[in-house]
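Page 37, continued from 36.
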């Protein structure tokens, strides 16, 4: 008898839970969206995307949810529209248990700023993709200027920048990267001269050679004696004296 009552109580409880879930789900879907919130989850680190940008984008696409029945809101369409903003990395639009709608957004992560004679100004992000600049926010990053193709920026230049960014010495030493026909020069923060790497082949060995020259040469003879330090040649550093 006790076992029967226990099983009966469990069945009643399960039935209630199923009924409650269906009832509150239907009740929620009959509601009108009275609250819509845009959450830019990584806004503490960067502020490329503003809430107003997303609001305006959805209004332009006639997808802004405020005032619409929740049952008629297509969250997948909203996500697709938000992804049209090329500063967005991921977006998830969902309904809360209170009937509010939330757009949860992560921004793309730039690692290199490019100012190209060919294609204008843009970023390369951590996934090697081109990313537009923003009027809202500028981030301090390695800067490459000159005759730069997008393919070169996404590949050889990306690898080089990730290497120097990971080395605190070079990250602090290099102010600018100048590119012409895939040939690279470095502009240091200290000293009025340029360092010619040439191609980015064997750039690690070239930087090791430069570090040795700085320690044994420039720190001894001075940083303003040369106009150019050329590392293109094997096993040697060729310097051009200032006129």
């Amino acid at each position: 008898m006790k076992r029967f009552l226990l099983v009966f109580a469990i069945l009643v409880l399960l039935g209630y839970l199923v009924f409650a879930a269906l009832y509150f789900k239907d009740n929620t879907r009959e509601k009108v969206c009275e609250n819509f919130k845009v959450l830019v989850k990584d806004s503490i680190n960067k502020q490329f995307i503003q809430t107003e940008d997303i609001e305006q984008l959805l209004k332009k696409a006639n997808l802004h949810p405020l005032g619409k029945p929740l049952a008629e809101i297509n969250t997948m369409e909203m996500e697709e529209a938000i992804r049209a903003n090329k500063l967005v990395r991921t977006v998830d639009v969902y309904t809360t248990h209170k009937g509010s709608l939330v757009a949860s957004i992560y921004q793309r992560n730039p690692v290199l700023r490019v100012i190209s004679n060919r294609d204008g100004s843009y970023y390369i992000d951590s996934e090697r993709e081109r990313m537009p600049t923003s009027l809202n926010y500028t981030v301090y990053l390695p800067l490459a200027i000159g005759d730069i193709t997008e393919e070169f920026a996404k590949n050889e230049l990306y690898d080089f920048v990730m290497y120097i960014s990971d080395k605190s010495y070079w990250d602090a030493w290099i102010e600018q990267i100048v590119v012409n026909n895939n040939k690279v020069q470095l502009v240091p923060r200290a000293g009025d001269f340029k360092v010619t790497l040439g191609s980015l082949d064997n750039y690690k060995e070239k930087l090791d050679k430069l570090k040795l020259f700085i320690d044994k040469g420039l720190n001894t003879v001075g940083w303003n004696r040369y106009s150019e330090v050329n590392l293109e040649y094997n096993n040697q550093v060729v310097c051009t004296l200032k006129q």
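Residues 2-29 form the longest helix (28 residues). Flag for discussion at group meeting. The CA atoms of residues 164 and 170 lie 5 Å apart.
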